[in-house]
Amino acid sequence: MQLIQLLLNGLSLGAVYALFALGYTLVFSVLGVINFSHGAVFTLGAYFTYLLIGGQAGANGLLAGLQLPVALPFALALPLAGLASALVALLIERVAFRPLRQRGADSLLALISSLGAGVILVNLIQLLMGAESYAIPIGTLGTLPAALSFGGAQVRTVQVLLLAISLLLLLLLSVWLEGSRSGKALQAVSEDPVTAQLLGIDSDGMIRLAFGISGFLAGVSGGLVGLSVSIAGPYFGISYGLKALGVLVLGGLGSVPGAMLGGLIIGLAEAFVPAEWSGWKDAVAYGFLFLILVLRPQGLLGKPLGTKV
Amino acid sequence: MDAGLLEQMLIGALLALSVYLPLRCGQLSLATPGFFAIGGTVAALLSTRIPSFAGTGATSPLPALLLEMTLGGLLAALLALAIGGTVLRLRGIYLAIATIALVEILRVITLNLSFTGGALGIFGIPQPFATASGYAGFTLVLLALVCWLCARLEQLRLGRAMAAIRDDELAAACVGIDTAQVKLQAFVLSALLAGLTGVLAAHFLNSWNAKVGSFDASITTLAFVVFGGSRTWLGPVIGGLVLTALPELLRPVGDLRLIVFGLVILLGPVLFPQGLITPQRLQGLGPWVAGLGQQLRGRVPGPWRR
Q: Is residue B148 packed enough to be buried (19+ CB in 10 Å), middle (13-18) or exposed (0-12)?
């Protein structure tokens, strides 16, 4: 019974990691650079969700006591928060990535400028909403029961919901990437942006699309984690961002199925860390990450790294 | 100027040089805060647990500090030597991520071991200097020494081999440079510098915990180098000094200061893609500076230079 519970917890955690890591992957595959503001967009998504369900801003920020005039159900608030996060990701692309790309600058620079964008976002949140933690009340789920029973094991409804929503989004994304014209165009840009452009694909548009989707995924996963474990303050996205980076490398940078596999492995591994060792839980993802880089640098499902002459 | 702030700035400059060393041969290693944390932990443990390191006077003895710096630096360098061979086979962003993982693993270990004080860390580290000015004077001498060594490095075989690897690793290997060895040496030197800087910082800060070496620190130290410019040793030094001082200097704008700090990090690479200090910019400043610029560059750029 215990096993089913652990398994489901691990799976739902892993699915959210995968969702979050896919946002990195999309941007990495078209630009070849890690977007370090991704964790901040995740945090933002959680705060947007909290405000949209009618949550009240705490006493310590500039927005103290603010409450939106609407209180949306979670099912509506989550996608809206995702959309708002997508807009922010587009803005980040505009100010932190595009100017560098247009000059053909070293991709290392975008790493720093995106980090700057992340620092701004996190501190803006802190300024507006204060440093306190927020919880998305379980009551927002309407009439759903707090726990479900699977073969005698009690599982929190939230975990099941997390798993279902994440899997649905992962499925939609895969179908879109493999089956649709724009998904294939995105893959072409990630192979070679200049050639793609020559073949009539709007490379810049595709890059914007990648950022938009990546922001949406970050926002949604932020909202889901906020619902599941509460929002621990403006910096809470950073540790998730790092772990998602581990997920990403484990599966193979730039590989979509790899990100999913990596997410599930790390989520399950963390769930099976016994409670008395919980302090070491964070080391699991990084330990995996380190090992895989040393043993198989291209990740589990990545393409082999060649030497370019 | 406040000597405490000056000391922080000097420590920032030393850390920036530690990031710069591997970057000089094109290796983006973000492990500096991990080695910095090792040095600090060594200092905190030795000086709070062993009475002769703390001394009996008002300040702890200076030879004890120098011994700690040697030990802290060596331990960091040994770790770098042990993992460098495998880690440095990775390139570009993969190396960066592996070194971030290393920093995080070290952080979690420090956080969970009981003798490193767990989440609270170690308090009441004895002071080898009575005032912040004492620290700043000592660190200034150390920084000057490290800068001189870095400038000398550019004239030496090792420094030139490093530059050759940065420009084209394959070509460097083809002309007989043992690229793996040179990269490892740069990595170990970087760790040594970060380790002994950690010893100084632990004494200066008076307490030490796992938070010191975190992902944030990895990225901030990298920002020092990218902001200042990674072509000469002067760039990281200026970057470290300026970016460490900035949040403090921005105190008058209150809550907005970290937002302004973020703006600077965001706009720095966009406005100055090469960093603030480039050999060309130094040459534009007049003959004396141009001479310095030539020296900083280390060699006359050839047509192959990218």
A: exposed
Assigned domain for B302 exists: no
Give residue B187's domain range.
3-214
Q: How confident is the model at residue A280 (pLDDT cuts 50, 70, 90)?
A: confident
Structure-token pair, residue A44: 């933002």
Average pLDDT of chain B is 86
User: What ipTM does the predicted assembly reach?
Assistant: 0.82
Q: Shortest CA distance to B224 belongs to which of B17, B10, B3, B6?
A: B17
B126: nearest Cα among B58, B209, B60, B38 = B60
Q: What is the pLDDT of residues A25-70, one digit of tens each?
A: 889 888 888 898 999 999 999 999 999 988 888 878 888 888 888 8
What pLDDT band is residue A1 in, cutting at 50, 70 and 90? Answer: low
- For residue B235, being part of any structural domain is answered with no
Residue of B259, B272, B274 to mutate when probing chain A, most A C-beta within 10 A: B259
Helix residue ranges per DSSP H, A53-153: 74-92, 98-102, 107-129
Q: What topology does CATH give the domain A2-295? A: ABC transporter involved in vitamin B12 uptake, BtuC (1.10.3470)
Q: Hey, where are the domains in chain A? A: 2-295
* Total domains present in chain B: 1
> What residues does A148 pair with on adjacent strands?
A155
- Contact at CB, A297 and B104, closer than 8 angstroms: no
> What SS3 string covers chain B?
CCHHHHHHHHHHHHHHHHHHHHHHCCCCCCCHHHHHHHHHHHHHHHHHHCHHHHCCCCCCCHHHHHHHHHHHHHHHHHHHHHHHHHHCCCCHHHHHHHHHHHHHHHHHHHHHCCCCCCCCCECCCCCCCCCHHHHHHHHHHHHHHHHHHHHHHCCCHHHHHHHHHHHCHHHHHHCCCCHHHHHHHHHHHHHHHHHHHHHHHHHHHCCECHHHCCHHHHHHHHHHHHHHCCCCCHHHHHHHHHHHHHHHHCHHHHHHHHHHHHHHHHHHHHHCCCCCCCHHHHHCCCHHHHHHHHHHHCCCCCCCCC
Q: Helices A236-251 and A256-271 meet at what angle, rounded to 10?
A: 120
Per the prediction, chain A carries an average pLDDT of: 85
Residue among B89, B97, B253 with most chain A CBs within 10 A, to mutate:
B97
The answer to the question of residue B132 being in a domain is yes
- B55, part of any domain: yes
pLDDT in tens, B78-122: 999 999 988 898 877 788 888 888 998 898 888 888 888 777 888
Record the tokens describing residue B196, joined without a space. Answer: 């002994």
Q: Across A235-244, B38-47, B207-216, B276-285, which has the greatest mean pLDDT? A: B38-47
B256:A242 CB<8 A: no
Are the beta carbons of A294 and B28 separated by less than 8 Å?
A: no
